[in-house]
From TrEMBL:
Keyword Phosphoprotein: yes
Family: Belongs to the polyphosphate kinase 1 (PPK1) family.
Catalytic activity: [phosphate](n) + ATP = [phosphate](n+1) + ADP
Annotated residues for binding of ATP: 74, 499, 595, 623
Regions that span the bilayer: none
Stated name of the protein: Polyphosphate kinase
Function (record text): Catalyzes the reversible transfer of the terminal phosphate of ATP to form a long-chain polyphosphate (polyP).
GO annotations of cellular component type: polyphosphate kinase complex
Classification via CDD domains: PLDc_PaPPK1_C1_like, PLDc_PaPPK1_C2_like
Source organism: Frigoribacterium faeni
NCBIfam families for this protein: poly_P_kin (TIGR03705), PRK05443.1-1 (NF003917), PRK05443.1-2 (NF003918), PRK05443.2-2 (NF003921), PRK05443.2-3 (NF003922)
């Protein structure tokens, strides 16, 4: 055990803090050149794991449909951002970052091949696996050809009254150029013929996005619930749209466009105005994927390829129906028997009143001890939301400072900040308007906050503010006291029900001072060199983690206890990965629990023999980021918002806070032990980049579902605490 004195409450030596100015280097030329997996293929492997849950007959049926929809939605975003970004950099001659020894065009070809394979598998999973089971459960997704005459009469009435008036067919001829095709919209390509001249014409019809993706058929008293895809219903009434013409061919297609946003903040006097202009341009990004039904005729396909300027590689020919993200609508059906058992979050023990019938007091609870909450097993509403609502209503609270990255539009968090400002409190909201695909929402409620008197700032030029921080300043007995929350997830009541996250509440004065200085840096021009219990990016997070890894290497080499455990969404940063390789070479046990992308090659002799990588997917999206270091028997544990990616470490403001209470250290250590156990259902990453699912033991019995086990454990803890 290290005998040097430790900084009070920091758990690290003064030398450790002083050394932060120098970044530990782990690249010495001895590591093999091809030591990373491909980032994009790793992401596609993650989405394949989502698909495997949809294919699994032991997953509740409507949850399988939900995973099919998640797969489709995930893949849309992957094309809009990652593939689009690669293509843009190639087109503009910019360097394309790749650590796998292949050129950018080869990387795009590999992505295309894997994406084609997965999209076909996805379509077949719906048609061959999920749809038949839905049929058996009394939920039918019909085709027009499945309907009898009585159904067709009723559906014609629905079409005439509710759909026909909003349709807008667009002809394509010398007087009507090929129309703009909006991203992710479903469209019908239609060829019609004039019976007098026999001349054929082309038209495009957009399937209205404001209408239900699947139209429910009237009840036929069979006990079945029946739907028909909207595009199928429209396609069988095209004659109403082209009276006097003969409909020769009609097919469904869908275009994905580049929808990434880039704002040059150095050139911009007004970030909001520049971002709004860029959001407008986003709608007209170049096409990067064309999905078509597999019955499309060559003439129509040739026209679309030419007019949209896509390559053969970018064409995805699939069985109907396209856009299975529309299955989200069907999964909302009130069929509890086809969904995961309902789970109601409970209030954390430490936040419950000490006496029966007492009103909860967040400040009194936090003042007694640090409180670690684990969502969604423990309630967001009775912890984070209650904290901010009580702060807004408390006359002793003088100021509230908070970062907002993503939240729901009708969020009680926003309302609490508005209430606080209107009651005369000082309120600062650091709104990240560059949060991808939430830009317009964030702009809208940033303006709403400003109108209420909240001080709204947009962070530092060139950096996204991704950290999840809330600071409350309260006057108590003539002195000011800090109450803080630092979390791993967004201040979003809706996603908190399905995202697994952790958050620390503390009244520790040092953490409060750290956050005060950090907020000053973000809202003003302060430059804070070091923090006591925080690791903050972009200045010190990378350095702090590398220093911790180096410490584990030195302990292993000296024969002292060592170990590294990381829970992360994605890990692609080469410097961090190289450090983990060096730690493995020194004999340090390294466990990586990752949800999404992982470019580590685990289990390779001489490189990564002690590294294990596992992934857990289920009813909740694993979202927390945890960093545990053995530290010669005095574990160091950090939680926060940062993934191990270049953007998080170098281009974002991120914050990790160190946990100090032994019960919190024990809780997280137990969580890692269970997640990495061979008895827990998970996917294991092999050194060649393949993921192997381990869901049953050798006798065929299901392995432990970690999320279900945690539900039971935390509910039992609540019951036994009363």
């Amino acid at each position: 055990m290290d005998s040097e004195p430790r900084v009070d409450g920091a758990g690290v030596t003064p030398d450790f803090l002083d050394d932060f100015d120098e970044i530990v280097s782990f690249e010495d030329g001895t590591l093999p050149a091809e030591r990373y997996l491909d980032r994009e293929l790793s992401w596609l492997s993650f989405n394949q794991r989502v698909l495997e849950l949809a294919e699994d007959p032991t997953t509740p049926l409507l949850e399988r449909a939900n995973f099919l929809a998640i797969f489709a939605s995930n893949l849309d975003e992957f094309f809009m951002v990652r593939v689009a970004g690669l293509k843009r950099r190639i087109a503009t001659g910019l360097a394309v970052p790749t650590n796998v020894g292949r050129g950018p065009n080869e990387v795009l070809a590999d992505i295309s091949a894997k994406a084609h394979e997965l999209q076909e598998r996805h379509a077949r999973a719906f048609l061959d696996l999920v749809k038949p089971d839905l049929d058996d459960a009394g939920i039918h997704v019909e085709k027009w050809s499945d309907l009898d005459e009585a159904d067709r009469v009723r559906m014609r009435e629905i079409f005439t009254e509710q759909i026909f008036p909003v349709l807008m067919p667009l002809a394509v001829d010398p007087a009507h150029p090929f129309p703009y095709i909006s991203g992710l919209s479903l469209n019908l390509s239609i060829r019609v013929r004039n019976p007098k001249t026999m001349r054929q014409e082309f038209a495009r019809l957009k399937v209205p996005q404001m209408l239900p993706r699947f139209v429910q058929l009237p009840d036929d008293e069979s006990g079945r619930v029946r739907f028909i895809p909207l595009e199928d219903l429209i396609a069988n009434h095209l004659q109403d749209l082209f009276p006097g013409m003969e409909v020769v061919e009609h097919h469904v297609f869908r275009v994905t466009r580049n929808e990434d946003v880039e704002v040059d903040e150095d050139e911009s006097e007004n970030l909001i105005q520049a971002l709004e202009r860029e959001l407008l341009r986003r709608r007209f990004g170049p096409p990067i994927r064309l999905e078509i039904t597999d019955d499309m005729d060559p003439v129509t396909l040739e026209l679309l390829v030419r007019e949209l300027d896509v390559t053969d590689q970018e064409v995805y020919k699939l069985p109907a129906p396209l856009d299975l993200a529309g299955l989200f609508e069907i999964t909302k059906m009130p069929r509890a028997d086809l969904k995961y058992p309902k789970h109601l979050p409970t209030t954390a023990v430490q936040l419950q009143p000490t006496e029966p019938n007492m009103k909860p007091d967040m400040f009194a609870s936090i003042a007694r001890q640090d409180v670690l909450v684990h969502h969604p097993y423990e309630s967001f509403a009775t912890s984070v939301q209650a904290f901010l609502e009580q702060a807004a209503a408390d006359p002793n609270v003088l100021a509230i400072k908070q970062t907002l990255y993503r939240t729901s539009g009708d969020s009680p968090i926003i309302e609490a900040l508005i209430d606080a400002a209107e009651s005369g409190k000082q309120v600062l909201a650091l709104v990240e308007v560059k949060a991808r695909f939430d830009e317009q929402n964030n702009i809208t409620w940033a303006r709403k906050l400003e109108k209420a008197g909240v001080h709204v700032v947009y962070g530092l030029v060139g950096l996204k503010t991704h950290c999840k921080l809330a600071l409350v300043i309260r006057q108590e007995k003539g002195t000011l006291k800090h109450y803080t929350h630092i979390g791993t997830g967004n201040y979003n009541p809706k996603t908190s029900r399905i995202y697994e996250d952790m958050g620390l509440f503390t009244a520790d004065d040092q953490v409060g001072k750290d956050l005060t200085r950090l907020f000053n840096e973000l809202s003003g021009y302060a430059i804070e060199k070091k923090f006591k219990r925080l690791l903050v990016a972009p200045r010190y997070l990378r350095r702090g983690l590398l220093k911790q890894i180096q410490n584990e290497i030195e302990n292993a080499q000296a024969g002292r206890p060592s170990g590294i455990k990381i829970k992360i969404n994605s890990i692609v940063d080469e410097q961090i990965i190289d450090a983990l390789y060096k730690a493995s070479q020194a004999g340090v046990p390294v466990d990586v629990w990752v949800r999404g992308i992982c470019t580590i090659k685990p289990g390779q002799p001489g490189l990564s023999e002690t590294i294990r990588v596992r992934s857990i997917l289920g009813r909740y999206l694993e979202h927390s980021r945890l960093f545990w270091f053995a530290n010669d028997g005095d574990p160091q544990l950090f939680i926060g918002s940062a993934d191990m990616m270049h953007r998080n470490l170098d281009r974002r403001v991120e914050a990790l806070v160190r946990l100090t209470q032994q019960n919190h250290l024990d809780e997280v250590a137990s969580l890692f032990e269970r997640a990495m156990s061979d008895e827990t259902a998970s996917w294991w990453l092999e050194s060649d980049g393949t993921w192997t699912r381990h869901a049953r033991d050798e006798s065929g019995r299901p392995l432990v579902d970690l999320q279900n086990a945690l539900m039971k454990q935390i509910n039992q803890r609540k019951r036994s605490s009363r």
